[in-house]
Amino acid sequence: MKIKKLYIAVGMIIAFAVFFELAAHADESDEATRVTFSEPIQIPGQVLPAGVYLFKLVNSDSERDMVQISNADQTVVYATLQTISTEHTEPVAYTVVTLAEQGPGQPDALVKWFYPGNDTGHEFVYAGQKEKDLARNTQRTIVAHQPTAASSDASGAGN
Q: What is the DSSP string of 36-93?
């Protein structure tokens, strides 16, 4: 009887450990990243006001380059956007975003987002002429101030 209880207890501990191991890596699979913009920022199709946003990959096996942008507590989804893969010269240690300056009176446009530890990121797709204009505009890269994905903060973005 004691041996049976021991096996049940060990089995439950193993199951519990596996569950929490999977949960601990959940943010890495969807690349969930909190980003703070101090000024409005343009994304394809709209301009987001200054604030804190959560960027994450949409959980879809067929569309790994779909990025969802929501408010920090995920109660409002602002956009789900198609992106294309883009390369960085080496894996980034922190969250990195690239912005294109659009000129006086216009918000900077979000061009790329890289998750910490990756050298492959996500380039946002803009329509026709806008894409060409952004490619010609001055672009700058902003590196997050904090190392963890759950608390990444590119708070200088948009300045």
A: EESS-EEETTEEEPSEEEEEEE---SS-TTEEEEEETTSS-EEEEEEEEEEE-SS--S
> Are 14 and 75 within one domain?
no
Cα–Cα dist 156/159, whole Å: 6
Has residue 91 been placed in a domain?
yes
Give the H or E element holding residue 141: strand 139-143
Span of 20-24, 46-50, 146-150 with lowest mean pLDDT: 20-24
- Say which amino acid occupies 10: V
Structural domain including 19 reads 1-29
Angstrom distance (rounded) from CA 34 to CA 9 = 38
| Calculated CA dihedral for residues 151, 91, 83, 96, nearest 10 degrees | 40
User: Could you report the per-residue pLDDT of 88-102, keeping only the tens digit for each?
Assistant: 888 888 888 988 898
CB 111 within 8 A of CB 99: yes
Q: In terms of domains, do 42 and 100 share one?
A: yes
Collect all residues with Cβ–Cβ distance below 8 Å to 60 and sequence separation of at least 6: 66
Contact 36, 153 (CB under 8 A): yes
In this structure, the strands spanning 108-114 and 41-43 are parallel
Domains in the chain, number: 2
